[in-house]
Design a protein that fits this description.
It is built from five helices and 61 strands. It is mainly beta and about 850 residues long.
Length: about 850
């Protein structure tokens, strides 16, 4: 209302005395006053603003007669340049001209808005003929944005002193751009506007509220306009007009109620002379109402504010008061909403919160939010500034350069202006829970705002027919309480005296910082420091009083006093292992199981087994495609960014989405599932895969194909390929078999269904002597083992039926070691299942170095279940 009153006063005065006063309220520019020039290239739009309405690349102008004296004269106007100005796109406003054609040489003065680079400013020029001279160089960057809205005021006194002001918000809180004494020209006949533009900006110049006349004398005292809380100790005070420096910076002129009192310091803003920054002597208290009293404040015309007050509420937002509530990360192809990314914020607390200067971080890119008061139980949509009109809603704020939202997932963090984390999520496209909707056009919506750490269990794809609900309650809104207790996940080695403990979800950082809840055995005890790690608080850094010793495995016991973000208490009997990791060698880790052709909504995975006695650091390992022809590793992927540990006799399962394993198979140890951002692609027909260290030394490798599956399976889709023995090489094709039906065709995180531990206590041994190759997980495979007292034997192993007919050549002229194991799956040379009955395994070995020959045969029985 104060701004409106000043505006009415301003134009009432102008009507009485101005030589030019045109707000285009009559809807044209042909009368009262009459404008001439490029008249077909301008229009008065529906907002009653003069708008350039041209095309192509050109210059256009309009002028109107004006012969008002230059003594004690004021010029003011509104201008909007809806683009980033340059030398090819800028405006001139001719205050003074002795010519009607503003394209020709002339004598006069003009304001120029825009130039090349990022220093676009509001400048005053003198022009003599074709020579243009800048006489006031305004503040750099005043019109450097992609959308510039300004109000400009110029005065000249009777001896030639020019003063230039501007307000970059389009109001009348002017800031001084500069002054100059210049009497080059002392008369005028015309006033006008001149535009230079390229095709893309031929309709993006807007003008309004032209005034030329006597200097308007301000006889009104300044008033308090508003207050902005920067922090508990800093407050910005806005007046309705510029105020003088001395009174603005007198701390006795300000008083805040309750215990705050006079400020310690008051500083008038360097560019906005209507703004004063207060530093408080005593801090504001959250959730408290205050009154600011200002007195004895003078404006630039010595009008004095006797006393004025403004009330305000200070509330310090806490974590989860404002939530990341909805995301449109992949708007293409659009369903019904604009093809534009957005992030929706929701205020779930009982107080209005100013989110100005809060930061929104996507991945590694952070952007500051504009000033906006988010009311309780209200939403605001954040998008690119240029996309605001597309949404057609009032609760929408823009960023000139919007954060880039990755379709497959990333971390988003909302921080307040002190850097404290208010809301954080790490979304992925699995959160859609819909394979069609994740391909574009549908938003991700939070289900229950009272469950802010629910992650995938509290987010899903929108069910609104438009594809999302920007600016209003989510379409999937429902009660979705989190009753799941947090759990310890794993411990990582950082240094001999530093370890990291990871949890399954975000935890209460205050409780997690208590050192007494952590205990290590082997003489270590409690840590001397516990630091929860922001922004997600899913891990705690423990600093130990004594260093971990190599060769020992330590147990960390964690008390059940830790809570998640909604108060669920940590489950009991939580222990984790930690140790000093050792260097990995070839064969320490083996590829133990892989699923390369998953069912729909399942996921490919590779299982590893630590067959060594070493504790191995996973951040020193990679998984890669392996080209068996060139023996090259292709596109290695890091297994872990943390120094997570792989203990002896443990299993680990690598995939891009462990929830796709959990939903399809029994998982004995969920903590053994590791999600990677990406994995080597496992071809259904066959491929190579390897585990290597960071120096690209191969630890284990496997070349597989679909023929390694049990040949009698009608369909191998969703069936994993399992290793039979840890001790036999990965390259031994008979060391692999399809997972059994009775375990659901895969055994992620636990012992393989086809695992068989053999002993070579004789030269030639069959185990079991009766086997049933029906893939039920019980005695599916015949294991053939041997043991010699010397190496270098060449082996042949053949299978014959009871009539002496050759059924299968299992091994032919193969160089063997002193011991070894092979397997027969009960199929013939054509991969057909043999009939039930007795079979002879014929064994022949020859050592060319000493001409030793060994021959043997053993019988076995191929059985089958009775129907």
């Amino acid at each position: 209302m104060r701004f409106l009153s000043l505006t009415i006063l301003y134009f009432c005065f102008s009507i009485n005395y101005a030589q030019i006063n045109d707000a285009f309220s009559d809807g044209d520019y042909t009368n009262n006053p009459t404008w001439n020039g490029s008249i077909t290239q301008f229009t008065v739009n529906s907002s009653q603003k003069l708008q350039l309405n041209s095309s192509g690349t050109d210059t256009s102008f309009l002028q109107t007669s004006n012969s008002f004296t230059l003594n004690n004269t004021e010029w003011s106007f509104f201008v909007q340049l809806a683009f980033a100005p340059s030398d090819n796109n800028y405006a001139k406003i001719y205050l003074v001209s002795d010519q009607t054609n503003l394209k020709l040489p002339l004598n006069g003065y003009f304001i120029r808005l825009g130039e090349n680079g990022s220093f676009d400013s509001v400048d005053l020029y003198e022009q003599s003929g074709s020579t243009e001279t800048k006489i006031i160089d305004g503040i750099n960057g005043r019109c450097a944005k992609t959308n510039n809205t300004l109000r400009v005021r110029v005065t000249r006194d009777n001896i030639g002193n020019w003063t230039l002001y501007s307000d970059t918000l389009g109001g009348i809180n002017y800031s001084l751009e500069g002054t100059v004494l210049d009497n080059t020209h002392t008369s005028t006949t015309n006033f006008g506007v001149w535009c230079k533009y390229t095709t893309s900006n031929a309709t993006k110049f807007y003008f309004d509220d032209f005034y030329v006349g006597p200097i308007i004398v301000d006889n009104t005292a300044p008033q308090l306009d508003s207050i902005k809380i920067i922090s508990s100790s800093q407050v910005d005070v806005y007046f309705n007009e510029p105020i003088d420096l001395a009174s603005a910076q007198n701390t006795n002129n300000y008083f805040i109620s309750a215990t705050v009192g006079n400020p310690n310091n008051a500083v008038r803003d360097a560019s906005n002379l209507a703004l004063v920054h207060l530093t408080l002597a005593n801090p504001l208290v959250s959730s408290t109402s205050y009154t600011l009293t200002a007195s004895s404040i003078s404006d630039l015309n010595s009008n004095v504010l006797t006393i004025d007050t403004v009330s305000f509420l200070y509330y310090k937002a806490k974590k989860f008061d404002i939530l990341l509530n909805e995301l449109m990360v992949d708007p293409d192809p659009p369903v019904g909403l604009p093809n534009a990314e957005y992030i929706e914020l929701y205020n779930r607390c009982a107080y209005p919160v100013n989110i100005g200067n809060w930061s929104l971080t996507a991945g590694t890119t952070a952007k500051l939010l504009p000033n906006y008061i988010l009311q309780p139980d209200s939403f605001v949509v954040v998008c690119a500034t240029a996309n605001i009109p597309l949404f057609g809603i009032s609760n929408c704020i823009g960023l000139n350069s919007f954060v880039s939202l990755t379709n497959t997932g990333q971390q988003l963090i909302l921080r307040d202006n002190s850097g404290a984390v208010i809301s954080e999520i790490n979304y992925s496209d699995s959160w859609y829970r819909n394979s069609t909707k994740k391909n574009g056009g549908w938003s991700l919506e939070q289900i229950d705002p009272l469950n802010p750490c629910g992650e995938i269990f509290n987010w899903t794809a929108s069910i609104n027919l438009l594809g999302g609900t920007p600016g209003k309650q989510n379409s999937v809104y429902a009660s979705n309480q989190d009753n799941t207790k947090p759990e310890t996940d794993f411990a990582a080695f950082s240094a001999a005296d530093t370890i990291l403990v990871f949890f399954s979800e975000s935890i209460d950082s205050l409780r997690a910082a208590q050192t007494s809840i952590y205990q290590l055995n082997n003489g270590i005890g409690s840590p001397i420091a516990a630091l929860p790690i922001a922004p997600d608080f899913k891990s705690v850094k423990l600093t130990l009083a004594n260093s971990l010793q190599p060769g020992l495995i330590y147990t960390i016991s964690i008390a059940d006093s830790i809570q998640d973000c909604v108060g669920n208490i940590l489950s009991t009997n939580n222990t984790l292992r930690v140790a000093v990791p050792e260097t990995t060698s070839n064969g320490d880790i083996v590829i133990n199981e892989l699923l390369f052709d998953p069912n729909e909504n399942c996921v490919e995975f590779v299982e590893l087994y630590n067959k060594s006695t070493k504790v191995i650091a996973l951040n020193k390992l990679q998984i890669a495609d392996y080209d068996s022809i060139t023996s090259q590793l292709i596109n290695p992927k890091n297994i872990s960014t943390q120094n997570r540990l792989f203990f002896p006799s443990d299993y680990l399962v690598l995939s891009t989405n462990s929830s796709g394993i959990n939903s399809c198979y029994f998982v004995e140890n969920k903590k053994a599932l590791i999600d990677l951002p990406s994995m080597p692609a496992l071809s259904n027909s066959g491929d190579g895969i390897a585990i290597n260290d960071l120096s690209l030394t191969i630890i284990d490798k496997l070349s597989y194909d679909e023929q390694m599956h049990f040949s009698l399976l009608d369909d191998t889709k969703g069936v994993s390929l399992e290793r039979i023995s840890f001790d036999r090489p990965s390259s031994d094709r008979t060391n692999w078999h399809s997972a059994a039906a009775n375990v659901g065709y895969a055994t992620p995180t636990y012992q393989n269904s086809q695992y068989y531990e053999t002993t070579a206590d004789k030269e030639f041994k069959l185990e079991p002597e009766i086997f049933s190759p029906d893939n039920d997980g019980y005695n599916d495979i015949l294991t053939i083992s041997y043991q010699f007292n010397e190496p270098d034997y060449v082996l042949n192993i053949s299978i014959y039926d009871a009539n002496g007919r050759l059924v299968k050549r299992l091994l032919k002229n193969t160089l063997a070691g002193a011991t070894g194991t092979y397997s027969w799956d009960g199929t013939d040379e054509s991969r057909n299942k043999v009939m039930m009955g007795i079979y002879i395994v014929y064994f022949e070995a020859f050592n060319p170095s000493n001409a030793q020959k060994k021959v043997g045969k053993k019988s076995c029985v191929v059985a089958s279940k009775l129907n």
